[in-house]
Design brief:
single chain; 309 residues; alpha/beta; five-stranded parallel sheet; 10 helices; 9 strands; 42% helix
Length: 309
């Protein structure tokens, strides 16, 4: 896919995400209200609060306020440093989007590919929370979590670097279908977007890694309507995008019941994994409006932040 076309695609997704954010002002107000009521160390909002404890020094970066610079520590080096507190760091939200080749799939019944819908919702959530003063980072990207309009621009750039091309094929790195292990601050939040059709044991290992760190997580499974309904009939060839051999069914409708049963079993397994970790699982189909998915996600995040505060 030409670089110019990819850039236009990301710019379009950003514009759509900003439009979604603009359509939900009540939730932004609610997030800001929650941000101003945090206390006792659970979910700081980059504001002075009770029970504040030193966490670490980190390099000053775009999106950080000048008043956050620790001048004494900075004087010992040629770099500027921010004094970060545990209270402040604990509220960080990290996002991740599945960039495996299977996410490029889009049927005639879908409003977007799974990859584009995942990135759209990821950008919308990040834009809403950053606009409300929260710090959001992209898992696996360089740089610290950021807030504000400049931080959102950096977030878009980071996501664009990892975006799955529209014409992705089996030669793409299939390992991008699950997030890599990364050390996060305890009590941070992690929001994962993907189809999560990988083997359940592989998914469970990833979730356990983050749950053991004390990370609170949310998974949104994004599927094309044909992946749920299996409307195929007659002779159909299926290509899974992972490099495996194609499968041909002479009468595809004959395996519909078995397919749906296996999908339900897999989803029940995902639900069990999330319940065991204390995480939340939601499901979104690409023939549904992204507004509904965004409302559900934002309601979960706002409610959890309010309870913790």
């Amino acid at each position: 896919m030409p670089a110019s076309a990819q850039a236009a695609r990301i710019a379009s997704l950003r514009a759509q995400a900003e439009a979604l954010c603009a359509a939900l002002p009540p939730w932004m107000v609610k997030a800001e209200r929650v941000a101003n009521t945090g206390a006792h160390g659970a979910h700081g909002r980059r504001r002075v609060g009770l029970g504040e404890a030193f966490w670490q020094f980190r390099r000053y970066g775009p999106g950080d306020a000048i008043r956050a610079i620790d001048w004494r520590q900075s004087a010992r080096s040629s770099h500027l440093f921010v004094r970060e507190t545990e209270w402040e760091a604990a509220e960080t939200l990290w996002c991740w989007c599945d960039m495996g080749p299977g996410m490029a799939y889009r049927s005639q019944f879908a409003g977007a590919s799974k990859a584009d819908r995942a990135m759209l919702l990821c950008l919308a959530v990040a834009g809403l929370l950053m606009g409300a003063g929260e710090r959001v980072g992209l898992l696996g990207a360089e740089g610290p979590p950021r807030t504000g309009q400049l931080g959102f621009s950096r977030f878009v750039e980071a996501l664009a670097e990892k975006a799955l091309p529209v014409d992705a094929v089996a030669s793409e790195d299939i390992n991008r279908s699950l997030p890599s292990n990364q050390s996060l601050v305890r009590h941070a939040k992690l929001l994962l977007f993907g189809d999560f059709l990988s083997p359940l044991d592989e998914i469970a290992a990833v979730i356990r890694n983050y749950a053991d760190q004390g990370v609170q997580g949310y998974m949104m499974q994004i599927l094309d309507p044909t992946e749920e309904d299996f409307p195929f009939a007659g002779r159909v060839m299926f290509h899974d995008g992972s490099g495996a051999e194609d499968i041909v069914f002479g009468r595809a409708q004959s395996v519909r019941a078995a397919y749906r049963e296996e999908l339900n079993r897999h989803r029940a397994g995902l639900q069990t994994i999330c319940q065991d970790a204390g995480w939340r699982l939601t499901v979104h189909r690409t023939d549904q409006t992204p507004q509904l998915a965004l409302l559900g996600l934002y309601r979960c995040l706002a409610d959890d932040m309010r309870v913790s505060a």
